Amino acid sequence: MNNQSMWSLKFSTAALVLIPVAVGINYIGKFIAGVLKLPLWLDSIGTVLAAMLGGPIVGALAGAINNIIYGFTDPISFVYAITSVAIGLAVGILFYKGFISGWGKAMVAGLIIGLVATVVSTPLNIGFWGGQTGNVWGDALFAFILANTDSTWLASLLDELVVDVPDKLLVVLISYGIYKGLPRNFVQLYNNNDKVETLD
């Protein structure tokens, strides 16, 4: 897929249907992580999968809509729509440039996405939560670093890093596994630009 079509605002019907499906997958991932009390979020599997199939714009839309819906019950989620958009864009770009074309590359991409999410989320954490993430493991590290360095920025960055990098690594690998398991004719729906809908 060339750069022009990668950034196109003309979406196939399949791509438009993919967005609510991605939001549902995100919710399931978040629910499972909550039930199992995992030190991860797993709430962006749908966003990553949407970006792989539909490109960066579709991934960004899926991520943003996901946070907007969460925001009705948890208002702070609105703010983190910025992070979800960044994840969707980054995955879509990496995938269409061929950087997620095998398990090894998917692992590297997961680390990159984790760093992107960390860089975007850290200022938000500082602005809204005093630097903490709300994750038990990360916040324990935050308290330790803050006590020993008196640097809120360093403590917040490392707090986010130790949660986001493993989370996004696992999310990208799960999403890539799902993508690889999809029927070929289903994947081809997202490479067919014959029938498109425009958002204008």
Automatic annotation (TrEMBL):
Ranges annotated as spanning the membrane: 6-28, 40-65, 77-96, 108-128
Entry keyword annotation includes Transmembrane helix: yes
Record-linked Gene3D superfamilies: 1.10.1760.20
Keywords: Membrane, Transmembrane, Transmembrane helix
Superkingdom to which the source organism belongs: Bacteria
Protein name: ECF transporter S component
